[in-house]
Structure prediction request, 357 residues.
Amino acid sequence: MDPPAQQTADVPVPFVGRVVVGVLPGAVVAVLGIPLLAWWLMDEAGDARVGWWPVPVIALVGLVALLGHYAGATPPEGRTRTERKQMERALSAIPRKGPVPDDPLVRRAVVVSACNNIAALVFLGAVLVGMALGAGVRPGYSWFAASGGAVGLAVVAALQLRRHWANYQALHARAHALAVDGGLRQVDAVPVPTVGQVLAHSVPAVLVLAAGVPLVVQWTLDGHGDVLGDWSHLPLIALITVASVLHALVRAPRPRLGVDVDRGAMQRWLVFAAVSRGLPENPRTRITAGAFACQQLEAAVLMLAGVASLITTAIIRSSPWWAIVGALIVLIWTVQVIRARRGWNYLQLLHAGDRTG
Prediction:
């Protein structure tokens, strides 16, 4: 199972790996989206092709922001301006040397600051990689000047992280000691992602499938719908493989389902939760059913991407054959949606119990 987030006076201290995984969906979209928009919106000289180019750029920024909000592992910074100001003052009052004060507000400020800086470094690195790919697609544009802001923000984030990294590690060590000595580590502490996190982490693979299948079909078939060569099936296989590997890398962390898990029993627990609005009493069963619910939800989302790609292909190719294939997949997807709805309800119940309990 993935390691649980540790607690420090009711403040979750996520592992560095969990913070990095939380920012991966937005980072992947940035790496793929920047060169794609550059290819689409710029000509060979690096000038804009259309006057409405800010619209897709703003859409990309908004998508990345939504992914960061729903997929991130950073603890909440503060619900009001007063709380945020208090955390800023607490952060500025931390001594550069010595132990971290016991004030929960100070410890929370350290955790939030360190997590935000780690996420910022990973994301800004992804932006710079996307700009480098964009320079390869449209070398006529002044990418060096455009990357100056990202480089400056990355330097600032690195300097801030260096200041608080020692305190963050100290809090992690303290949280681990409390978990071992105080018996705080329980099965219930194993993290199961929320619905928003599951959906946000599925976005990169969904985009690859939804956009990639029509492009591959357009590339490998001629105007009459005949294949261009014996190799024509290989790009589609490669695309599905890339989407599968990408999803495995960036999917929301959750407990792993063993090969001996009774999936029929898990399905019955999801039905039970949907009907009775209750959860299994056994903590391990409750967590395992949560992981199974995540799989059901992901399968429906990825299948939806496949349906969208086939519909787009049918429109581009003007061929009824693709529409027939899409209709058959829609029938299969309908069954998966029913299961995914149960998983959605289960995850909402599970996290509603966490918030109230």
About this structure: Residues 16-78+86-179 form one domain.
